[in-house]
UniProtKB/TrEMBL annotation:
It comes from Shewanella psychromarinicola. NCBIfam families: dephospho-CoA kinase. ATP binds at residues 15-20. Its EC number is 2.7.1.24. This is Dephospho-CoA kinase. It catalyses: 3'-dephospho-CoA + ATP = ADP + CoA + H(+). One of its GO terms (molecular function) is ATP binding. It is an enzyme of class 2 (transferase).
Length: 209
């Protein structure tokens, strides 16, 4: 029998604190499914994804060690909507399937799916509830500069490519305000953990009814 798992979709803009928040849930024993990790796995060396990419773009898309040349692939799809569509049509179903497979093998009370582009890529259809980590753009910029050592312009460029704060918040079932210190964050996560345990239990009751 396939048990329905309660899935929380965790998202937020660059440097909002998704990883930090996810790790706090993990401390309560909750399993994490990370879309970024899976997106790398589906194009790893010798994967079916990488074979299809090589057949389409040619061997020049590979580095000498047989792994994907990400810069070369970016060049191929940059400013080329047709090739970008081809690539997304190949990879998105693979990523989706792998995320759902990981959810099924999880044994925790519920699962946190970390998806930076949850709404942009319409992956919110996979989850039972959405959780947005929210900080002001100025804080996104300062935390990214501090973490990655990039320029202000580079961060502003990334911010411009993502959905706005308002659009994201409008679609959130729950919001974590990560503008405070670690203790404030921890107590918000604790409260949400209790809520999700209850929602997961309710879901199980409904399935057995
Ligand atoms: P990305 O989208 O770039 O993958 P992310 O959303 O996963 O980022 P984190 O890596 O968790 O964000 O956090 C971004 C940076 O901000 C990290 O350096 C982290 O240590 C720091 N940070 C997170 N939360 C706080 C906080 N409440 N106070 C101060 N710094 C924080």
């Amino acid at each position: 029998m396939m048990l329905k798992k309660f899935i929380v979709g965790l998202t937020g803009g660059i440097a909002s604190g998704k990883t930090t928040v996810a790790n706090l849930f993990a401390q309560y024993g909750i399993d994490l499914v990370d879309a970024d990790v899976i997106a790398r796995e589906v194009v790893s060396t010798n994967s079916d994804g990488l074979k299809a990419i090589t057949e389409h773009f040619g061997q020049a898309i590979l580095l000498t060690d047989g792994s994907l040349d990400r810069a070369a692939l970016r060049t191929q799809v940059f400013d080329n909507p047709e090739q970008r569509l081809w690539l997304n049509t190949l990879l998105h179903p693979m990523i989706r399937q792998k995320m759902l497979d990981q959810v099924q093998t999880s044994t925790s009370a519920y699962v946190i799916m970390i998806v930076p582009l949850l709404f942009e890529n319409h992956l919110d259809s996979l989850v039972d509830t959405t959780l947005v980590v929210d900080i002001a753009p100025e804080l996104q910029i300062s935390r990214t500069i501090q973490r990655d050592g990039v320029s202000k312009q580079q961060v502003e460029h990334i911010l411009a490519s993502q959905m706005t704060r308002e659009q994201r918040l409008a679609q959130a079932d729950n919001i974590i305000d990560n503008q405070g210190d670690h203790e404030v964050l921890r107590s918000q996560v604790f409260g949400l953990h209790q809520q999700y345990l209850q929602q997961a239990a309710d879901l199980e009751t409904n399935v057995h009814d």
